[in-house]
Amino acid sequence: xxxxxxxxxxxxxxxxxxxxxxxxxxxxxxxxxxxxxxxxxxxxxxxxxxxxxxxxxxxxxxxxxxxxxxxxxxxxxxxxxxxxxxxxxxxxxxxxxxxxxxxxxxxxxxxxxxxxxxxxxxxxxxxxxxxxxxxxxxxxxxxxxxxxxxxxxxxxxxxxxxxxxxxxxxxxxxxxxxxxxxxxxxxxxxxxxxxxxxxxxxxxxxxxxxxxxxxxxxxxxxxxxxxxxxxxxxxxxxxxxxxxxxxxxxxxxxxxxxxxxxxxxxxxxxxxxxxxxxxxxxxxxxxxxxxxxxxxxxxxxxxxxxxxxxxxxxxxxxxxxxxxxxxxxxxxxxxxxxxxxxxxxxxxxxxxxxxxxxxxxxxxxxxxxxxxxxxxxxxxxxx
Amino acid sequence: xxxxxxxxxxxxxxxxxxxxxxxxxxxxxxxxxxxxxxxxxxxxxxxxxxxxxxxxxxxxxxxxxxxxxxxxxxxxxxxxxxxxxxxxxxxxxxxxxxxxxxxxxxxxxxxxxxxxxxxxxxxxxxxxxxxxxxxxxxxxxxxxxxxxxxxxxxxxxxxxxxxxxxxxxxxxxxxxxxxxxxxxxxxxxxxxxxxxxxxxxxxxxxxxxxxxxxxxxxxxxxxxxxxxxxxxxxxxxxxxxxxxxxxxxxxxxxxxxxxxxxxxxxxxxxxxxxxxxxxxxxxxxxxxxxxx
Lengths: 383, 292
Description:
The complex is a heterodimer of chains A (383) and B (292). With 383 residues, chain A is an all-alpha fold. Helix content of chain A is 73%, strand content 1%. Chain A has 14 helices and 2 strands. A two-stranded antiparallel ribbon of chain A has the order 1-2. The model of chain A is unreliable at 365-383 (pLDDT under 50). With 292 residues, chain B is an all-alpha fold. Chain B has one domain. Chain B has 12 helices and 2 strands. Chain B has helices spanning 2-32, 39-57, 60-81, 91-113, 139-161, 163-173, 175-180, 185-207, 220-233, 238-259, 264-278, 287-291; strands spanning 130-131, 134-135. Chain B is globular, with a radius of gyration of 19 Å. At the A-B interface, helix 5, helix 6, helix 12 and helix 14 of A face helix 4, helix 9 and helix 11 of B.
């Protein structure tokens, strides 16, 4: 697009960005200790608040909360990938699916081997994350050579191949039916106190907390800085000594790991994983959540995940309340949500590129308390 | 051997459609530097219009004309109404807006027409003609090949020998200079979108009779295939789109014919990954094209 040569861009950018990068690195390392502690404290407070909140909800709401927490992992990973490295993936549903299948296969194998519940859960979750990371690494290696639209197309091809993969390997992956896993029951000690849905919400919140805190730490680390440098000007970043390709691959793999954890959690909550759950529409929904919340922002990812879990349910309630003919109601089911989300995606991108988190700019007296998150309201910019 | 010949022949006809659709992606890419992810959904809307017109008048030609006109109209509407306002700072925002359009158009089609497949009749016989004991192309395949090649030739002539074609090329390659020389670049971008959407509508209309039928998602795979064609052939060259289309078409029918139709998406994925990893510059294009 731009007419300047790489050399020109380089000489101009290298002075500017090398200086900025060094200064920023120094600033980061001096602020790092305090920053990490701050992030951990915030994470702990929010997690405890969320776990406390489950006591106020009925079982169905807790189920929705657990689903939203699972989505939160994947959306936060995707949002970091798009917002901080400028890599657009339409295929995070495939990464979630691989996490879910990894979880289900390992959990079932361990159940057969007679492993106790907590061990089974931890190992299966780990397997889900590892498998998603490996797939993410492979995709990331291809992705590091590509720019936005090409990567988007490649990941799109991955998502539409999910049903084909599950039916070709139906012996292991169970074909269209997918896999079922055993329930993770409420521990003895707690079983008088809380229902199953609440226990699942606890699991989901705890895992999401670990995943998202890790992402928050990555974001404010030197790696996070390098990711943004690569996003803003890859040539300049390389001239300043940033190994651009390695940064992109790492970012993609981390994002895939987060999505894998999300897929494993979804499998815990629903006790099943099947290709029908990970359609192209579902994958686009993750993108919608990331964009509406605000690309690159973890708070935005939380809002977006809540929205994609709650809005379909609310729209379903609303269309059932209205006196519509049965035929129309059937056609509205599902489609209405997609219509609203598609419209939101367009409107937010065109009118409000910062997403919902950009709203807080209009709130008085809050600027000081949210300053660490300010770097997160970037939309990806490129030459 | 007979089977191989039959599959290759069918693959060429299928590939011509992919090439046509990929060409429509190339047209928008050259006019606006956007890969239009909404192209499939836009073409589908035009195909529904054609389906309605053919149903009402009983004439395939009327439906074909309706598809072209409504395709161009949708291209105009999308460019003037939405895409024009996509922030140019990032190439990603154009893709994200296009994804939003896909969701809006497909859900509107779903609400209006429901999820069922509507079979579309082909204007010609679909049973293969037997040549020297070997079943080859069906009359419909021949029709598809002829139409696709005719449209591509017409586009090549348009770009090469007409004033409009020259202005289109000029505003795509050097918008500022063209503007100084009196080319109305905005209008040319819109013209590129209209032309492209009409070509995409034609490709979808040609493909759907050979598939299950008309459904709000029937062009999803077409887009993925055409995108693969564009990657194999290179987004900058119409010749690349044609040769890439034929390669992908033959590859797909061979995979489908020998390994089964469920394997086709995996085959495409493998092809895409192989091209991107081994020849990241594409087989027919310059390396710069990919980084733009």
